[in-house]
Amino acid sequence: MTKSRDPSALPAGKEGIMERQFLKGNEAVAEAAILAGCRFFAGYPITPQNEIPEYMSRRMPAAGGVFLQGESETASVCMVYGAASVGTLAMTSSSGPGISLKAEGISTLAGACLPAVIVNVMRGGPGLGAIQAAQSDYLHATKALGHGGFRVIVLAPSTVQEAIDLTYKAFGLAVQYRNPVMVLMDGWIGSMMEPVTLPEAKEPVTFSYTGWGAKYFNPSGVGVNVVTSCLLEPEYQELLNIRAGEMYEEWKEKEVLAEEYLLEDAEYVIVAYGTAARAARTAIGELRGKGIRAGMIRPISLYPFPVEHLKRLDRSRVKFLLDTEMTLPVQMMDDIRLAVADAIPVHSCGRSGGVILTNEEIVEAVELAIAKEAR
Amino acid sequence: MEKIYERPKSLTDRGLAYCPGCLHGVATRLIAELLDEMDQRTNAVAVLAVGCGTLGMFHFNTDVVVSPHGRTPAVATGAKRAAPGKLVFSYQGDGDLAAIGMAEIMHAANRGENFTVIFINNSTYGMTGGQMAPTTLVGQKATTAPQGRNPAETGYPMKMCEILSQLEAPKYIARFALDCPANILKAKKGIRKAFGMQMAGKGFTFVELLSNCPTNWGMPALECMDWMRENTMKVFPLGVFRDGDE
């Protein structure tokens, strides 16, 4: 925790733009949220994300917003739901075990078509797991953050700057699609400090719901809003589900984010996100030093998954893919295999439980896979 | 001719969705009358719990937010804190408030959140078909307590007014019954007081309304009223437990 700096003195206007600062990932995410117009935060203590609520408790009142420490993760996300229901941009943050508890609220936000941002600073799992940083929640985040078959856009930063940019972007996406958005950050990004540039402060938006839920549920209601995920008529529920499905397809067209690194001549392509991608980048340099043409696809949006980036790989040149994650068993494997339709072999490499995956281990995994493929 | 009785503007034109003889209709109407009388219809946010109370989304002609089960005070907290000028009330049954939502109600009360809780206590889970509630009386039958509630196995009815009265922050805590016109009028006065205190920024206000469930109690509506007087009201005494206005 940084004690010397007064967070309320951080730039909140144009004059602050381009000023380089040295910020910790968790605090940077909190500041980015405020700059994006977030004016409500509720959270509950859990490692490794505690700097987010701590920062918010100091900064949010100065920004004219509300900070609340909820009695539980469940209550915190429901406070966010309440704030969003009256048109306030709101956020909560947690880590794996707490995100499980938030599943109810996230599902409710999605069911009621309310925007909000949820930050998951991942640690080792399952259960209470290890409190050390890990990447154990890919499947939870991308497949089912709660019951009912809804999806959310999942953004995974690899640097503190990207954590800022993606958090800032997440609020825009949440409002645009009237759906929660998750920033899936591993504990290392949350805990490390890097030089960053903060974006411009946006005016907080207020959104209103008159006209959709209201008209259906309350046809005789006059100028009122009905915010609910409780749809007692099956045809209406089905209609909303079909619309949600169309929205998820739209995301696949418009919202995929990925970085391609040294792919032009790559024969061995690492697929990694977040901190694992940082280790992979170093490993690729070392591999290329040995004459091994390695490259990387780094998914930034984990959902929608960058399927096209994988599909357009030159199958005559790329000999294999290496799913590289800081969790075991690796969790992106099925998505990668589906994207390349098993036309390219997929190997895996990872550490788990909070053990850091090193670049040396990735180099070793690539060399081992080369040997295996040669057989 | 002067009109002396009409449908409150704070109710929609739909027929009530509650079962015949159910006192939810009385509670809903009392709130709607007060929102009219206090000129709060367009300023009110009803935070509805899961249970029969959810049906209020068809009836309140106000802004309505439906909460996940038990989290109603947390949702109301978020709404009120984000929009402090609104009149926010939660409308919760006993399963929602005293079982799954026990943490949320205790902590919202302890923070002294400036909204009003309307707590409908009919000592059963009405919507799901009459299962045992935390407020089910000793010996009272339920679909999950077919021999009647046995305190050796399932404890005793939880008295929320009394429990909440242990906390320092709440400003108004009162229990009324909806069994007869005299008590209904007292209940209306209590809710008016709670809403008024909220709008004056006084803090957490809590109104428990003893209600019935003809369908799941398995008795005609009128018999329910006698049963309430002979049983419910003996376990849950009526009265004002705290009045921070005094």
Automatic annotation (TrEMBL), chain B:
One of its GO terms (biological process) is cellular respiration. The keyword Acyltransferase does not apply. GO terms for molecular function: 2-oxoglutarate synthase activity; thiamine pyrophosphate binding. Keywords: Oxidoreductase. Its EC number is 1.2.7.3. Transmembrane segments: none annotated. Residues 58-208 form the Thiamine pyrophosphate enzyme TPP-binding domain. InterPro entries: 2-oxoacid:Fd_oxidoreductase, THDP-binding, TPP_enzyme_TPP-bd. Coiled coil: none annotated. This is 2-oxoglutarate oxidoreductase subunit KorB. It comes from bioreactor metagenome. The lineage of its organism: unclassified sequences, metagenomes, ecological metagenomes.
